[in-house]
Amino acid sequence: MRSAIVVGAGTSGSIVARRLVDAGVAVTLVEAGGYDTNPAIHDPSRAGELWHSAEDWDYFTVPQEHAGGRRLHLPRGKVTGGSHALNAMIWVRGAASDYDAWERGGATGWSWADVEPVYDAIENDLLPVTDDYALSPIQASIIDAAVQEGLPRNPDYNGGTLDGVSQEQVTMHDGRRVNTWTAYAQPIADRLTILTGREVHSVIVRDGRAVGVQLGEGEGSEEVLADEVILAAGAIGSPVILLRSGIGPAADLTALGIPVVQDSPGVGQNLHDHLLSPVIFTTGRPVGPPQAGVSVTQSHLFWRSRDDLAEPDTQPIHFSVPMWGELEPRGDDGFTLMAGLVTPHSRGALRLSGPGLADLPEIDLAALEDDRDVASLAASVRQARRIGARPALAEDWGAVEVYPGPEVSDSGVEDWVRRTAITYHHQVGTCRMGTDPEAVVDPRLRVHGVAGLRVIDASVMPTVPTGNTNAPAAMIGERGAQFFLEG
To answer: Is residue 426 flagged as an active site residue?
Structure first.
């Protein structure tokens, strides 16, 4: 029987494990975190409790030079379900042009024509994707205000046109979170060998072939062997494991005393992410606290900040609570229109700080390094301010903008963006697929230069799609599993 190790029980890894087991492969699924026993995972209203929890890797960037010198929090799931156990469950395919650009860039076989049927299959199989739920009153009014601002109401942003304001399509059922762990892997857990609470230090490579993984390090380490190894640890975890395995830029590895197994200069490079910046309102009419089973975000919009753009470059997401973050609270009730940038030009990198599990990666998003990103996000903030001033919010709810607030003029929004931007938790690109020398994996997700090793997760995306990355990560899981089974 063919055997495989899948590292990571998140969005992609859970799908891969299910598809391989169904095809008769003996699968060992390794998850650094534990099982999803925290009740906050399953109640959409409590997602905010999961940041900085035991289920969060709780990564931070290095100080971001172009974002006020701040270290940005990168929540990543350390639990069965991965980041799909922490996120807002928003399902966005992206634009067809995103995938056609991947194809043109060397990711052969990843055009929209190739991936659209996979999305159709996912949404009609195990994973429920729905917008059939009641909108909170404030969310309905936010949509009305966006229409008053001149945006079209888009009933299906996954139907081929992103532009407009929409109710979010989410992976929920009966007020409960559904992720790929609960939908794909958990139902067949008795057919898997599952190792939880076990962190993979590195891939074991012998004679140019991956033959297993090393769990832990030092005296407590353990080797687990299989015919093939699949990394599905995400855009941070997968490159970190490759680098500790000696697969990466040779000079960087040598400097850390890591023997070079494969000089792969692209590992950890091409890191990029979507960004958000808050516009927060208090209200005279009470919005009320989060309700059990109801997500605090139910609507978003896609908008082009310039008329010459082929696709939207912004995706604000709307929250039924004031998202104060590091800002001083200025009230007890309200809502947030979180301006969003979804076509970043800035590119950063991830590097190791040392060869051990305790050596945290140095993560540099280069956030807002490119002035085009600042311009787009600032335009989104200005739009959010206008929406909040429309009658559906200003009159019907008594909405008052408290951040940025009247002390920040429209010309000062760029500075506001640099001082407040946070990530949308959509890191991609660090194990980019392609056929050029900088590509880490080929279009069938095999690591260049190392047999028996694949990366199947968001890290392989050449560029981030226009929208949330959970759906693309699921699609990559399905396609990667098929590639594996085809040999």
So the answer is: yes
